[in-house]
Amino acid sequence: MGELRELMHHALVVRGLSPRTQEAYLAAVRGLAKYYHQRPDTLSEQQIQAYVRSLIEQRHLAPSSVRVAGMGLRFFYTHTVQRPFSNLPLPKRAKTLPTVLSREEVARILASTTTLRERALLMATYGGGRRVSEVVRLRVSDIDAEREMLRVEQGKGRKDRYTLLGPRLLAELRHYWQVYRPTRPWLFPQRRKAVPMDPSTAQKIYYAAKQRAGVTKPGGIHALRHAFATHGVEGGMDLATLHRLLGPDRITTTMRYVHVARSHATTQGSPLEHLPASLLPAG
What we know:
Blueprint: H1 2-14, H2 19-36, H3 45-57, H4 63-80, H5 103-111, H6 116-128, H7 132-135, E1 143-144, E2 149-155, E3 159-164, H8 167-180, H9 199-213, H10 222-234, H11 239-246, H12 251-260, H13 264-268
Antiparallel strand pairs: 1-2, 2-3
Helix pairs in contact: 1-4, 2-4, 3-4, 5-9, 6-8, 6-10, 10-12
């Protein structure tokens, strides 16, 4: 599908989709073509629907993965071959709450890094709730020491924003800079190339530190972003501020951290605990 791939890639680029989304959508169409051993523009709607069903019943993909594949196929037929169709049912988006690291677990993970570079990377991730794709692309010029802010340039959704840079993180980044002198403009470049660190490398650094720390909760480096948000809510940060720092499109995405935060009500306990013991039946 060389010619079709180029056409689709052009459509993805001109519509401003992120590189990760581009690759996911292209992979969805490659999977469809490989499944039938046919050009995807020759397939019927029934064949496309059967393929999506196979992702669920045969490959047992998670609903989120099936949704991404389905959206990639919709994009291909709508914007590449101009053959839109609407009858492509997709699994509902699962409503889940993130697993949250405690403050003590975050501290143990940071303490379990083996180099200053690794610690600075994970501190920069947790310290402002950054996505891994954002932290590996931090530039030296993104550090605003006077305002204690870190600029995130073209984060998810092609949006710029500012997030927190506290005194502890600033001191850590300065120390890291003095020791490593990373290749400008990147704060965390690859070791042998003047390009940003690959996100998979950052993930490996996190998993290794988590294992050494003895933390068994599931999740990758994105758990540090969840922890930043949850700990912010627990510390009294208002939702509007947290929403600006995290940068999601919808406030509902930010509101889920209210549900996982240990609130003042939780620390007080259930009203049941405050009933007079003398009026309760004996155990």
